[in-house]
Amino acid sequence: MTFRTSHGEFPETGHAINTLSNIDEHMTDLVTFGETMLRLSPPQGQRLEAVSAFDVAVGGAESNVAVLASRFGHEVRWLSRVPDSPLGRRVTGELRRHGVDPAVDWAESSRLGTYYLEHGAEPRGTEVVYDREHSAFADVTVSELPIDELETAELFYTSGITPGLSAAAATATEQLLREASAADVRTAFDLNYRRKLWDPATARQTFESLLADVDLLFAPERDAAAVLGLSGPPTEQATALASEYDIETVVVTQGADGALCHHGDEVFEQSVYETETIDPIGTGDAFVGGFLARHLHGADPADALAHAAASAALKRTISGDQAILTPQEVQAVVDDGGTEISR
């Protein structure tokens, strides 16, 4: 069996996908880097400790962003390390289905990270249990990744989850950001702090070493305060991040209070779109994916923010980690309302 992608046909075997000789030489719009896991969820209303069957989905911050950008018409590659096993092929096959080109290092005798998600309902919260230590990705090294197209990409993206997974992953993240920056490839980074992975002080030390090579930063308001120590209104956080780390564009997300973008001498604000929530997991990734997709199309910050907010709202109506959306659906939400403010 072969899989047809935007780069040609690939056989459904592990190691053959690592071969780039048949890939046409052209610029990739977006390259992302990170771990993708299997998500195991009990049916709605059932508990993890009593479930007898799980719903299975594929999810990871950087691949979620890759999927949405691909669905919005961009050429996208996802860099990672996965086990050469049916589970690894489950992940790569899912990404190909959405037009993403998996550029992976296939690991032998290793494991795929998983996480368990038990949906809550008031007054019981949602429970997430990670099982990702010692996964194939934890031992990732840049030298084993097929990064040929990185230097010709338009944009490179990763998130703060990735360096928190292991020392090797942190080293690889730093190297890839540095290589992209050295090649004049624009870089984007989402702080995306996860307290289950590391403490704020350790995360801050790592983030500060990475931000010198970041051109476009996404920073949840709570992460900017808890990890980087930037208290005060979101506008002040964005200004401080842009100034202190010499970052061209800073987007600060504020949950239900919307988001803002500091770019040049202007600040753009965006409210949230009303939505019914079926599954909130992946909302932040949908926001980032929507913003980057429009950014790659040359949109201004106000337009990118509006499409980011609309993508995030629509994601909450969809089960699973990935925002399975069309550009037309997102545009319809944007056209129907929303608030952008430039000052």
Automatic annotation (TrEMBL):
Instruction: Give the top-rank taxon of the lineage listed in the UniProt record for this protein.
Output: Archaea
UniProt lists the family membership as follows: Belongs to the carbohydrate kinase PfkB family.
Q: Does the keyword Nucleus apply?
A: no
**InterPro entries for this protein:** Carb_kinase_PfkB-like (IPR052700), KDG_KDGal_kin_Halo (IPR054871), PfkB_dom (IPR011611), Ribo/fructo_kinase (IPR002139), Ribokinase-like (IPR029056)
> What Pfam families does the database record attribute to this sequence?
PfkB (PF00294)
Give yes or no: UniProt keyword Nuclease: no
The molecular function terms in GO held by this entry are: 2-dehydro-3-deoxygluconokinase activity
The record's CDD domains line, in alphabetical order, gives:
KdgK (cd01166)
Question: Under which name does UniProt file this protein?
Answer: PfkB domain protein
Ordered alphabetically, the record's keywords are: Kinase, Transferase
Report the EC code(s) recorded for this entry. 2.7.1.45
Q: Where is the Carbohydrate kinase PfkB domain?
A: 27-323
